[in-house]
Amino acid sequence: MLRLIAIVAVSSLLAAQEVQPAAAKLDFQKQIAPILLERCVECHGPKVQKGDLRLDAREHLFAGDQEEWNVLPGKPDDSELLRRIGLPVGDDDIMPEKGEPLRKDQQALIRQWIAEGAEWPVAVDKWFATAIAAKVIPKITFELPKVDAEEQAAIDAAVAELKKRGAVVQQVAADTPAIDVNLSLLRDKVTDADLALLVPLQKRLVWLNVSRTAISDDGRQHLQKLTQLRRLHAANTQLGDATFTALVALQHLEYVNAYATGLGDDGLAKLAELPKAARIYAWQSKVTPAAARTVRAAKPALALDLGDYVEERLAAAQKEIAERAERNKPVNDTCPVADKPIDPNQTVEHDGRRIAFCCGKCKAAFEKEPAKFLAKLPPKK
User: Fold this and answer.
1) Could you give phi then psi for residue 145, rounded to 5 degrees?
2) pTM for the complete prediction?
3) Which residue has the higher pLDDT, 373 or 10?
4) Are 354 and 377 in contact (CB under 8 A)?
């Protein structure tokens, strides 16, 4: 995690050193609304509102207590929506949850829109309604077993109990009875015994988030019964190979986030054998580089992420900073106007070189008549 923070910090420093021209004010309908339509309204629109968030009309986004708004006009850094879309791939809270993350240019547009006041013209609500009615949104479907009346009653009772305890339980989409359960917000209130509440959902539960909870390998007998599970977020838990090897019964499992868990080489090998395994996050786990190489060679289509590219990216970023600092270094140590030591914050670009001055007054004098002072500068290389 510290390495990830370092990369973010380095990237921010690089961005801060770029001098960008002032951007024109955004057109919400042309530049922001299409992004929301294509990537957000499926889960936050008229049919489904995950997390009680709806993004197809202004009145839904800016309703209720302003302190709880997901978008705070003029405050991009305090806006939850922007934080979520900027999270790293594999984070349990990233938005959009499905598909690739928003591109950096799309994130930048949303940041600019919020910084400019998050204007949402009333006319755009009608545009959204028309566009959604005309848009053919792919259905999310799962081949799930049938349930009888008794099983459905047990499912309903389990859902009610989970919600009563504070879990987020919802349909994955309006087109399917598949269920998504998120226990991560309850953190250490969730223990191994609580996992028994999930067992009645085994024919409907396809997405499960138990990250940051207090579960351990002692609860694996419950997890291994969730045979319809497609996604398992288990980051920052005490789960180890005793659990991950037991998940071989989950033949539909495609995605596992085992960041900062006890996942080791044996557990990784078992997960990789699953017929539909597509992505495994194993940062800061016990998986060794040798085991990772073996799995990658055997299953090249499996996306195995150990964060082993972090140091390479950090080194490249540090190199770029050093090279940029060298390029931006003034060619002179003495002010060509007043013959005093320079202030590195008082510089101008002239004839492809950066020239520094002792003060703003000298800088202005040079900019007015540069030829008058060029002889005092070092010769061009």
Assistant:
1) -65, 155
2) 0.54
3) 373
4) no
